[in-house]
């Protein structure tokens, strides 16, 4: 994964800009459009800071928020539906035929919990996995379902999306953020 220099991103065509930003975010149009319109950026950190401000602010409609959070893949999603970054972040072994019975069981449990979460809140469960095994996410999603606080869950999901973007930036640049 790599991102172009910020100066190049600032001058890129809209499609190129959005493709590059998709490296950091699973970007939905409401976020991508706002980020595109706000160019130029001094740094990727500034871009992510703006994305966070937009996602956690009050200017988005409820539908915009749903579009943004639902652009993110489900934890434990079928590998064929995940980006290369999501595969790595969720701890999948990318070799063909390497899924163990334990992996299948964990993914089946996550699929059930994702469905329960989405039925409870109306949007996808998003969490910054940070290299944890998917099995460690199971009690966390259960806790978040039990909290039954839609507004807090939306905020938590958006915050975790920004943590993911910051982690992806760090990996893409090989540097800590400034």
TrEMBL record:
Keywords recorded for this protein, A-Z: Purine metabolism
Entry superkingdom: Eukaryota
Pfam families per record: OHCU_decarbox
Oxo-4-hydroxy-4-carboxy-5-ureidoimidazoline decarboxylase domain location: 12-170
Any one of the GO BP annotations: purine nucleobase metabolic process
Keyword Zinc in record: no
Family matches, as PANTHER family: CHROMOSOME 9, WHOLE GENOME SHOTGUN SEQUENCE, OXO-4-HYDROXY-4-CARBOXY-5-UREIDOIMIDAZOLINE DECARBOXYLASE DOMAIN-CONTAINING PROTEIN
Protein's name according to its UniProt entry: Oxo-4-hydroxy-4-carboxy-5-ureidoimidazoline decarboxylase domain-containing protein
Species this chain originates from: Absidia glauca
